Amino acid sequence: MNAGDRVRVERAGQTYEGVLLPSTTPENLVVKLDGGYNVGVDRTDADVEVVESDVYDVEEGDAEAESEVEFDEDLPTISLISTGGTIASTVDYRTGAVTAQFDAEDVLRAVPDLAGLANYRGRVVANILSENMTPDVWQELAGVVAEEIEQGADGVVVMHGTDTMQFTASALAFMLDTPVPIVFTGSQRSADRPSSDNVMNAVCSVEAAKSDCAEVLVCMHEDESDDACALHRGTRVRKNHTSRRDAFETVGQQPIGRVDYDEREVTFRREHAERGESELAVSDDLNPEVALVKFTPGTDQAVLDLAAEKDGIVIEGTGLGHVHSDWIDRIDEITDAGTPVVMTSQCLDGRVCDRVYDTGRDLLDAGVIEGEDMLPGTAKVKLMWALANSEDVAETMQAPIAGESTDRSVPWE
């Protein structure tokens, strides 16, 4: 039995059939199933039958091999910063699950298409799945990105898990004034799957990092095809699907730009900060003591008592920004105690306006700050930043800083 053989493995009442792959552990068999997934099977008590020999020529990789990246003075320098996630992941052959493993140099080896597009520098800030992301990692990441720019990087690509990418992108958009593009990218499907999006997303992100748009962007598949990636402003993007490759959408507008994968061409639809327009500035103080409260019919008012222990509250209200009338007096008490309360909407489009109905007017009288058309998650991140960096939190929350809100809501602007 050798790597490349087609095998049928039976263990504990389960049958797996596919191509045997090299394993990093002697205790486990690794089988690539016909559907494209890899599965790890404990060799103990496993019954293995070779169905066909040498179906594929599978070479054993050299674990000690190092990539040789040649420097070309005619190419821009792009910093690849890894925080973990599926784009930088391998299969855990003990369980068959995907786990974050790669550092930035590993990504270069895994995506040879990146060769010749730029000179690269690689750094690892974290090696975590994005559900484990925290504000202190945002701060560390902001510092590393700033260092890379100070050391001459012409653009930065941040590899990040997709589940919380929008929060980290928002945080860096508030913490950094940047003279070069900062592009977040990830992968919805790991490299072991035939439908993986890691190569195209990585290539398009490097192209975006070479562009003249000096903003924080998120670069992911534009649609279900492999033609282009969309470029979303970091404070206006939301992950709207659990598993599709085109899971990310700009809310209320079209994406700010796109990258044609075949042509390697970057185009932008709207005005944006241009390369070199701003000097690098870092305001990375954050107050993480902010609660995001989602109101739905029947939500116990006691959630406000818990949230009141924080230094700031964002409420995701209904429609134009409403909650049950019974909440208003408690909100009034909270704001009187000096805790800012920002109102956003659970609607995916449009803006908060608490001047239309009695409930909204009462909320304004209770001291609620209208969150304009900010996404609730973005509003939470911005309030963390405003509490640490602004003397007038209400004024800061209602003033656009990084494209997170607009003067008026116009679809497809």
Brief write-up:
It contains 9 helices and 23 strands.
Overview of this protein structure:
There is one protein chain. With 413 residues, this protein is α/β, with parallel strands linked by helices. It has three domains: 5-52, Roll (SH3 type barrels); 77-282, 3-Layer(aba) Sandwich (Rossmann fold); 290-398, Rossmann fold, CATH 3.40.50.40. It has nine helices and 23 strands. The chain has helices at residues 104-110, 135-150, 165-175, 198-209, 302-307, 328-336, 358-365, 376-389, 393-397, and strands at residues 6-11, 14-21, 28-33, 38-42, 47-52, 77-82, 89-92, 97-100, 119-124, 155-159, 176-177, 182-185, 216-221, 228-233, 237-239, 248-250, 257-260, 265-268, 281-282, 290-294, 312-317, 341-345, 369-370. Strands 9-6-10-12-13-14-17-18 form an eight-stranded mixed sheet, sandwiched between helices. Helix 2 crosses helix 3 (165-175) and helix 3 runs parallel beside helix 8. The longest helix is centred in the middle third of the chain and has 16 residues, at 135-150. It catalyses: L-glutamyl-tRNA(Gln) + L-glutamine + ATP + H2O = L-glutaminyl-tRNA(Gln) + L-glutamate + ADP + phosphate + H(+). Belongs to the asparaginase 1 family. GatD subfamily. Keywords: ATP-binding, Ligase, Nucleotide-binding, Protein biosynthesis, Transferase. Residues 78-271 form the L-asparaginase N-terminal domain. The active site is at residues 86, 162-163, 239.
